[in-house]
Amino acid sequence: MGREIGNNVLEAVLDSYVQHPHIGKIGEKHFPKRHLILAVLKKLQYVIFPGFFDETELRSDNIRSYTKQLLEEIRETLLEQVEKTLRLFKEEYSHVSDDVTQKRSEEIVDAFLATIPKIREYLATDIEAAFEGDPAAFSRDEVISSYPGIYATMVNRIAHELHVLGVPLIPRVMTEYAHSLTGIDIHPGATLGRYFFIDHGTGIVIGETAEIGEHAKIYQGVTLGALSTRGGQQLKGKKRHPTIEDDVTIYSGASILGGETVISGGVVIGGNAFVTKSVPEQTRVSAKMPELQFKRNKSVEFQNGEFLNYEI
């Protein structure tokens, strides 16, 4: 058995709690629990894709009772967590009675649960876009079971509905969890249209005020960002991220920046393009091909595929 921790270490840590209280929640009974929020997210995945991820064998004779139980568990946990976030992060609920906060939490959670059929409808189009748009897709089941872009999109569609209903913190916990798993960073404020397809996905960033239309396809490493964030909190609530209209394809490594930037319908943005101005419809945008150099064994030099010199 190891030695006990020394009192000097313990006292130093406890003293740091006093010195930096803003990075601790000691005695804060209203702070929401991250593990419970993620448990809700998992159960929502069960409801949205029944039979794909849950351990229960679903049949026609148990699907009703199973779904009812899941929804009740989701509602109970989400009510508690939403009520805590309202009290903690919304000034208008910090000094009102418990009844007022509880009633508003019930309204929010019930309104959110009512959006589940809509979330499933949109995801059905996303899965169709992924299957039809990816020749490597073996089946729609494979898309649902394994594509990180579908998982990130599902989480965003859930989080976005909570965001629209004015729920603090919880939507961001959900989307950042998806970000940590998939490498795809979509802010819950971003609006995604139907038939949205993320191919590969790693390194994608979609900012809070981005708007994406229908039948959009985005590859890995794409950024839909702001031109500058130096204004900090003064920029809160302003349109900082681009608008992507219908039938737009954005290839890997492209950056599209700015709240006034509109990528119109049918546009194709080539890989590694850097776009800060609006693009008219049915336009192809591409970055100039970089000059390539090849060197081998320090004696053979190539440029654009041709020998420049050769030393023996």
Structural account:
- Helices cover 40% and strands 14% of the residues.
- It has 312 residues and is an alpha/beta fold.
- Strands 1-4-7-10-13 form a five-stranded parallel beta sheet. A five-stranded parallel beta sheet has the order 3-6-9-12-14. A four-stranded parallel beta sheet has the order 2-5-8-11.
- Helix 2 (34-48) crosses helix 8 (170-182), helix 5 packs antiparallel against helix 7 (148-164) and helix 7 (148-164) packs antiparallel against helix 8 (170-182).
- The radius of gyration is 24 Å and the shape is globular.
Short description:
This protein has eight helices and 17 strands. It is of the alpha/beta class and 312 residues long.
Runs in which pLDDT lies below 50 for 5 or more consecutive residues are none
Rg calc: 24 Å
Helix and strand run: HHHHHHHHEEEEEEEEEEEEEEEEE
| Total of helices | 8
Mean pLDDT rating? 92
Please state how the strands of the largest beta sheet are arranged side by side.
1-4-7-10-13
Keywords:
312 residues; alpha/beta; 5-stranded parallel beta sheet; 14% strand; globular
What secondary-structure arrangement, pairings included, does this model have?
Blueprint: H1 7-19, H2 34-48, H3 63-89, H4 98-113, H5 116-133, H6 140-146, H7 148-164, H8 170-182, E1 185-186, E2 191-192, E3 197-199, E4 205-206, E5 211-212, E6 217-219, E7 223-225, E8 243-244, E9 249-250, E10 255-257, E11 262-263, E12 268-269, E13 274-275, E14 284-285, E15 293-296, E16 300-303, E17 306-310
Parallel strand pairs: 1-4, 2-5, 3-6, 4-7, 5-8, 6-9, 7-10, 8-11, 9-12, 10-13, 12-14
Antiparallel strand pairs: 15-16, 16-17
